[in-house]
Design a protein that fits this description.
alpha+beta, 2 domains, 3-stranded antiparallel β-sheet, two-stranded antiparallel ribbon
């Protein structure tokens, strides 16, 4: 009986340890993000789309210069759109 309990406790501890390790790996694998203006399609921005708008999904036109989308850090200014490159700062249309 004691052996069975010891084995169950050992298995439970192993499972918990594996879960913690997997959670740490998942958090570390998530890239840092940054706001990129001028790359969102109409209604697909993550937040802010100029004066009078509330938040996500409020961009009125594609590639609106005052609407942003979260992108992996370091990629924003490399995103090419029909209206130019992505921007790290808001620009009024």
């Amino acid at each position: 009986m004691k052996t069975a309990n010891l084995m169950l406790a050992s298995l439970a501890l192993s499972a918990l340890s594996a879960g913690v390790a997997m959670a740490a790996d998942t958090a570390a694998a998530k890239p840092e993000m940054e706001k990129c203006y001028g790359v969102a399609l109409a209604g697909k921005n993550d937040c802010k789309a100029g004066p009078g708008t509330t938040c996500a999904g409020t961009a009125k036109s594609d590639y609106q210069a005052n609407a942003w989308k979260n992108v992996p850090k370091g990629t924003c200014v490399t995103i090419k759109t029909p209206k130019g490159m992505g921007m790290l700062t808001e620009k009024t249309n």
